[in-house]
């Protein structure tokens, strides 16, 4: 595929049936679906200098394939999503595993049989494990709230340990909140896995990593005769919205617009900025074959960073004598700073503010916000793909 940097002087919006803002999952999926299904001529406008959104990966100076915006672990329960994405990549058989560094001991997360033995010792850990099996059965996830609801001191002991050593301090670092500010519904979902399966997504039927990387997946998805990709283009420079129409380059645009960026930024934050958490990522290349035993180690009770990712452990890349790791530091997002908004802070006030922005575009019938930023939601890759496929089907139905 060919990418144009910047808009050419003769760029004519009316030459396109659809303009897509953003070349991440939401935008690329919609572009491909409409191009190949109804023959739409599609212009994809991307603010960054690359496609693939936050899934973008590249080879660093050491030759290690790294994820620029943090680790992306593919997993899904959706056969529809998996079949669509599998058209553009082969998959490795990678199964994601996470360890928590608890006072120097590495324990599987979610907390499981092995974690119990490490935390409580062989004898006591086995007693607690058998109590969990007797109460809930085997190979099931049990939120710690359910452990407490049983009013059993043994189960409460497990719940308290997991809450204190796996969840609490890690969550405070991740979200910048004190324990009393953490939504109880979040705490309630923290699971214990009653079993020995130490995969992070033990029940997801489709897992792996794109064999040639995520960027290659997006190159294949956007490689279509009806799709033109323009990077280094900020849609805010050429878009104007009123109550019922969208203008592009000064003229009312009659085609479909798929918008995947932040809605508040499209309106210059005039109602206030939607809050996010962002991440600072510190990459380091080491002269060793392997730094840690799994792709991700969470530092749940120590360190300023939340986790360390080692990319070769996830991609399966063979590169003797070199490995690249990445530490993540979470903090509040500052609009206009050049930071990346990663995690929407989904409290009632913020949802209400988002709703006010959304109301402004509800009556623009050819303007379609979709994706993590435009919908102000936390989406895994498969969920944003599903959302984009659903929107694509709606647009296709209107043009059938």
UniProtKB/TrEMBL annotation:
Entry cofactors: FAD
Gene name of this polypeptide: glf
NCBIfam families per the UniProt record, alphabetical: UDP-GALP_mutase
Keyword match Flavoprotein: yes
Example GO molecular function: UDP-galactopyranose mutase activity
Protein name according to UniProt: UDP-galactopyranose mutase
EC top class named in words: isomerase
Family listed: Belongs to the UDP-galactopyranose/dTDP-fucopyranose mutase family.
Enzyme Commission number(s) of this protein: 5.4.99.9
GO (cellular component) term, any one: cytosol
Pfam families cross-referenced by the UniProt entry: GLF, NAD_binding_8
Keywords, in A-Z order: FAD, Flavoprotein, Isomerase
Gene3D superfamilies membership: NAD(P)-binding Rossmann-like Domain (3.40.50.720)
Boundaries of every UDP-galactopyranose mutase C-terminal domain copy: 166-378
Species the sequence originates in: Collinsella stercoris DSM 13279
């Amino acid at each position: 595929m060919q990418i144009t940097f910047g808009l050419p002087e003769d760029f004519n919006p009316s030459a396109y049936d659809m303009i897509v803002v953003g070349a991440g999952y939401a935008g690329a999926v919609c572009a491909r679906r409409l191009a190949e299904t109804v023959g739409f001529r599609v212009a994809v406008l991307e603010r960054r200098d690359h496609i693939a959104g936050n899934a973008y990966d590249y080879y660093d100076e050491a030759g290690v394939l790294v994820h620029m915006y943090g680790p992306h672990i593919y997993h899904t329960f959706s056969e529809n999503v998996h079949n669509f994405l599998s058209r553009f990549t082969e998959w490795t058989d990678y199964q994601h595993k996470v360890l928590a560094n608890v006072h120097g001991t590495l324990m599987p997360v979610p907390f499981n049989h092995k974690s119990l033995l490490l935390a409580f010792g062989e004898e006591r850990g086995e007693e607690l494990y058998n109590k969990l099996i007797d109460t809930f059965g085997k190979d099931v996830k049990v939120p710690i709230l359910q452990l407490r609801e049983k009013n059993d001191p043994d189960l409460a002991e497990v719940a308290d340990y997991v809450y204190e050593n796996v969840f609490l301090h890690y969550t405070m670092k991740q979200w910048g909140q004190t324990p009393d500010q953490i939504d109880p519904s979040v705490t309630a979902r923290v699971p214990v896995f009653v079993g020995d399966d130490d995969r992070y997504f033990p029940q997801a039927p489709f897992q792996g990593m794109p064999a040639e990387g995520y960027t290659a997946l997006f190159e294949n998805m956007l490689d279509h005769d009806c799709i033109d990709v323009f990077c280094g283009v900020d849609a805010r420079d050429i878009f104007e919205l009123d109550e019922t129409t969208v203008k592009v380059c000064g003229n009312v645009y009659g085609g479909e617009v798929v918008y995947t960026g932040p809605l508040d930024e499209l309106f210059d934050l005039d109602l206030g900025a939607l809050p996010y958490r962002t991440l600072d990522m510190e990459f380091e290349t080491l002269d060793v074959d392997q730094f840690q035993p799994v792709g991700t180690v969470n530092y749940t009770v120590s360190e300023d960073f939340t986790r360390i990712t080692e990319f070769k452990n996830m991609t399966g890349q063979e590169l003797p004598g070199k490995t690249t790791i990445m530490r993540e530091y979470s903090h509040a997002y500052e609009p206009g700073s050049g930071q990346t908004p990663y995690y929407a802070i989904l409290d009632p006030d913020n949802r209400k503010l988002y709703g006010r922005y959304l109301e402004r575009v509800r009556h623009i019938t050819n303007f379609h916000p979709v994706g993590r930023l435009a919908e102000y939601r936390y989406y895994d890759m498969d969920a944003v793909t599903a959302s984009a496929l659903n929107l694509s089907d709606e647009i296709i139905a209107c043009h059938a």
